[in-house]
Amino acid sequence: MANILDSRSRPEAPRYGEENFDINQCRMPHGELGPSVIDHMNEGHRPGIEWAVAQIPDISPRFVLDIGYGGGIVSRLVLRRFPQAKGYGIDISETSYQYASEYDRYFIDEGRLKLIIGDVHDMPYEDGKFDLVISNASYFFWEDIRAAFMEIGRVMSEGAVLCIPSGRRITDGNYEKVRAETEPPMNVYRDSEMIGFMDAAGIDAEIVADETGEKGAFIGRRRRCHG
Ligand SMILES: C[S@@+](CC[C@H](N)C(=O)[O-])C[C@H]1O[C@@H](n2cnc3c(N)ncnc32)[C@H](O)[C@@H]1O
Questions:
Q1: Ligand 1 pocket check for 70: Cβ under 6 Å
Q2: CATH no. for residue 109?
Q3: Has residue 2 been placed in a domain?
Q4: Predicted confidence (pLDDT) per residue in 25-48, tens digit
Q5: Residues 6+ apart with CB under 8 A from 224
Q6: pLDDT at 127
Q7: Which range of residues forms the domain containing residue 141?
Q8: In testing the pocket of ligand 1, which one of 22, 24, 99, 141 has its CB within 8 Å of the most ligand atoms?
Q9: Given a cut of 60, is residue 55 above it in pLDDT?
């Protein structure tokens, strides 16, 4: 069987914004076009993820979680930044699982990364396990974002860092415009709403943005509340 990373062996999907692009492929990559959509995400998301990973404070995480790992680019970059860390990843898509298992094979074979198929709303990890949780471009598709953040707060240790790259800022001022341009099942939330969801989950978060405003991330810290 051809390697899932070999783009010559499979059809090319339309890119985000192009005619016939299927947003459901972003919600859950699938079918014969799924791997091509993931190629595009790994390539297109990379600059924003690199920037966001560089904004994570200088911590020494033992366990790192990547939620909605897609093609595995986030796990790869975060494990490079924190060479002592062990990575975990969870994603609902079988295609993402197959793709990322090849893309991040080096770390998996090294024993530093364990990927599973699963849902952010109900994760099979113990309370307080992770010192760092990161998730790029997945929260737009979570069915119950409040419950998802509560679950994220549950698996974070006291003082753990949360990094959610945010791409463009969605403020009260531009929310209606962004909302109108957004196609279901993708959801968008005001920056203040996002900070509220995290606060309710015991995470103090703020926005960090670059000088152009084009790159941004929510960076949060887990308050004390387990046990
Ligand atoms: C737009 S892709 C982003 C992939 C990757 N993080 C990146 O930055 O390129 C969104 C990913 O989130 C996953 N996802 C969507 N809903 C999820 C959920 N409820 N739980 C876990 N993963 C989910 C999808 O399967 C998909 O792989």
A1: yes
A2: 3.40.50.150
A3: no
A4: 999 999 999 999 999 999 999 999
A5: 158
A6: 97
A7: 44-222
A8: 141
A9: yes
